[in-house]
Write a structure and sequence with these properties.
Elements: H1 7-17, H2 20-43, E1 57-61, H3 81-92, E2 100-104, H4 107-110, E3 120-121, H5 129-132, E4 135-137, E5 142-143, E6 146-151, E7 170-173, H6 177-186, E8 193-195, H7 198-206, E9 212-216, H8 217-225, E10 231-237, E11 244-245, E12 248-250, H9 256-268, H10 271-279
Parallel strand pairs: 1-2, 1-3, 7-8, 7-9
Antiparallel strand pairs: 4-12, 5-11, 6-9, 6-10
Helix pairs in contact: 1-2, 3-9, 3-10
């Protein structure tokens, strides 16, 4: 076959051989590829997609919905990184804002096995091998490291390595990549204290039940600038296997290829980058800990 990546080499061979047959062969894949792409794109429309409710794109997230992913605890307003991403994906699939319906799905229930009452869930859900066994993930729409929040006057505020955080009393939310990251990489002397919600973790820090929080970096920026004054992000580090976020769908969802196409298009046209810059602070000033 005459793939685009090797087109020049094949053309040289074709010219050297002066073979009309080969020249004809070099042209045919391009035509087939275009037809295939057109046919595939035609299936990614509201009329053709097998959504939970015909003609409606049902999108799930947890409640409450926190900034910078959602603003004012109202996912439907289009404000916040993930709300904006959801509507951008919907638009690529041909859905208007009025055709998008938001529903509540608790974070730790979203990746449980079984049928779903939504088309996709967007809730800072990390793509992990264990979760991928029972649910479907889209191609990543964001890659996020972990951040460690401590008091500004804490001895951990100037940590130079993950090892320097071993004696910290860490608080973290249950069922998150942050928990596995803290356990596997910081390896704290005392097992992390695990809480049901992000808000519970924050409250534990406020009453000094814990003196460090491990959370995704984007959330760390928001917490240190809003709910947790006089705190700082001691550093950032990558979760085991990376922390890529994907849109979560039911296993074998018929929407997968179309959703992947939409995200790839949003990445290629710069939309994801623009939304990142608008809603999520830059990580450049936070040291990387190893």
């Amino acid at each position: 076959m005459c793939a685009l990546a090797t087109r020049s080499r094949i053309v040289v061979v074709c010219l050297a051989a002066l073979s009309a047959l080969l020249l004809a062969g070099c042209g045919s894949p391009k035509k087939v590829s275009t037809q295939t792409a057109a046919a595939s794109a035609a299936t990614c429309t509201p009329a053709k997609l097998g959504t939970h409710t015909k003609g409606i794109l049902t999108v799930a997230t947890d409640a409450p919905a926190y900034p910078p992913y959602f603003e004012h605890n109202k996912p439907s307003n289009g404000e916040g990184f993930e709300s904006a991403v959801a509507y951008a994906v919907a638009a690529k699939l041909g859905y208007t804002r009025s055709q998008v319906k938001w529903v509540v799905e608790p974070f730790d229930a979203s990746y449980a096995p079984g049928p779903k009452s939504f088309d996709f869930d967007i809730n800072e859900i990390s793509i992990t091998p264990a979760r991928a066994k029972v649910v479907q993930f889209s191609t990543p729409y964001y890659t996020n490291p972990q951040g460690v929040i401590v008091a500004s006057d804490s001895p951990f505020a100037h940590a130079k390595s993950l090892a320097a955080l071993k004696s910290a009393n860490i608080g973290v939310q249950i069922g998150t990549t942050s928990l596995s990251a803290a356990t596997a990489l910081i390896k704290p002397t005392h097992a992390p204290q695990v809480f049901n919600t992000s808000n519970d973790v924050v409250e534990a820090f406020k009453i000094k039940r814990v003196n460090a929080i491990v959370v995704d970096l984007a959330t760390a920026f928001d917490l240190t600038s809003t709910e947790l004054p006089h705190t700082t992000i001691a550093g950032q580090f990558s979760a085991p296997g990376g922390d890529n976020w994907g849109l979560l769908m039911s296993k074998g969802s018929p929407l997968t290829s179309c959703v992947d196409r939409a995200i790839s298009s949003l990445r290629a046209d710069g939309t994801l980058s623009k939304l990142d810059k608008r809603w999520i602070a830059s990580a450049n000033s936070v040291p990387e800990l190893h």
